[in-house]
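From the pipeline queue, job 12 of 40. The input is one protein chain; the requested action is below.

Action: predict structure.
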Amino acid sequence: MTDPFRFYRELHLADDPAYRAPRDAVDSWRELAEQVRAELARMGFPATVLSAEMPESKPVGGHVLVHQMEPFGVTLDWHAPVRDGRSYIEKVLNQEQYGLIMYVSLATEVIIRAMLGVLKEAGFRVLIDHREHHSYLCRVLEPPRFPMV
């Protein structure tokens, strides 16, 4: 599996915010993402593998994101059905950060961490990558060395 962190050096040396990881690295991440999707589905988390850079609509459920650009690699996300509802969209447009918006945000964090925990228990190498302003990425770095059958 290609280590996503090795591309940060190339990104900074290239001084190009649109820098993309080489195709072979991205292909290895797609393969990992499919293994992640299969394990999550096996344990009851519906998930879809998506390219993080594609502006496609995001289906309900788990997302296994493949990042060709920074932050590189495979990360997890969740899209709750309530986010597509009229009330939620109105609250976002009105910038109402508390109540429903805060609840959905916190519930999403709980679900993503649960998915990450399932993957860890299955033997995947995972990492919570802390970012700025209390945000983080839930990364999947490697498949299990000894997969559960």
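Job complete. Helices lie at 7-14, 23-42, 86-93, 100-121.
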